Amino acid sequence: DGGITQSPKYLFRKEGQNVTLSCEQNLNHDAMYWYRQDPGQGLRLIYYSQIVNDFQKGDIAEGYSVSREKKESFPLTVTSAQKNPTAFYLCASSIRRRTGSGYTFGSGTRLTVV
Amino acid sequence: AQSVTQLDSQVPVFEEAPVELRCNYSSSVSVYLFWYVQYPNQGLQLLLKYLSGSTLVKGINGFEAEFNKSQTSFHLRKPSVHISDTAEYFCAVQTGANNLFFGTGTRLTVIP
Predict the structure, then answer these.
(1) Cβ distance A108 to B43 under 8 Å?
(2) Helix, strand, coil proportions of chain A in percent (round to 5)?
(3) Nearest-CA distance B34 → chain A (Å)
(4) Residue from A90, A105, A110 to probe the interface with B (highest B Cβ count within 10 Å)
(5) Backbone torsions φ then ψ of B83, nearest 5 degrees
(6) Structure confidence at residue A1 (pLDDT)
(7) SS3 state of residue B5
(8) Is the omega angle on the peptide bond into residue B18 within 30 degrees of 0, that is, cis?
(9) Closest CA to B21 of B13, B33, B32, B31
(10) pLDDT under 70 in chain A at which residues?
(11) pLDDT for A93-107, tens place per residue?
(12) Rounded-to-integer distance, Cα A8 and Cα A98, Å
């Protein structure tokens, strides 16, 4: 079955360490997205990519970095510059340039920094 | 620019009672509208979407929503809720092939 795989499900890191969250899709979608979710704040867009080797900052990109070397993969690195990294992170994908296509979401990674 | 407002952050309802989760949007162009559901510690799952045609849209798990262009609303309804419907619900709007804009979510709690 096609879908989006986020790994790991739970991640613990010490303060000051960089950490990379994995997102892989086999839907042949062009566009991929990273969201951060905090209680009571809905979804906030971190980065998105419409095509391989290209990506754009979202609303809260500071302290994060991404790469898009392959169509299937869009890893997110949470750097030590992110002041409050503990959150639930969601990856999504969509068909590029198809009106009303909506997004398909992964199951999320819960990052806890101690 | 477009925006989405979910008027209720939390909605408690007794089991087998009806429920309506409200969503209003603003946009200067035609929109596509979505409702997603999120169960605890999971990703978002599409409940239903409105693209065109009939304004009453039926989705999974017995949910339906009605697009009202004059009131710029897309409220989600279910005639009889179950315990398993306890989750967070997100309304989203898309214009053309652009990014989705999400509301802040409504937490539905079904009380036995």
Answers:
(1) yes
(2) 0, 50, 50
(3) 8
(4) A105
(5) -55, -40
(6) 66
(7) strand
(8) no
(9) B13
(10) 1, 97-98
(11) 998 766 777 899 999
(12) 30
Burial class (CB in 10 A: 0-12, 13-18, 19+), A65: middle
Contact B97/A98, CB-based, under 8 Å?
yes
- Give how far Cα A13 sits from Cα of A36, A39, A105, Å: 17, 20, 24
- Residue whose entry in the numeric block shows the structure tokens 């990856």: A91
Say yes or no for a CB contact (<8 Å) between B90 and A42: yes
Give SS3 for B73.
Answer: strand
Structure tokens at B1: 């620019």
Count Cα atoms within 13 angstroms, Cβ side, for B101. 18
Whether residue A16 lies within 8 A of chain B, CB to CB, comes out as no
Q: How far is CA B11 from the centre of its chain?
A: 13
Residue A55's identity, in one-letter code, is F
User: pLDDT per residue over B64-84, tens digit each?
Assistant: 999 999 999 999 999 999 999
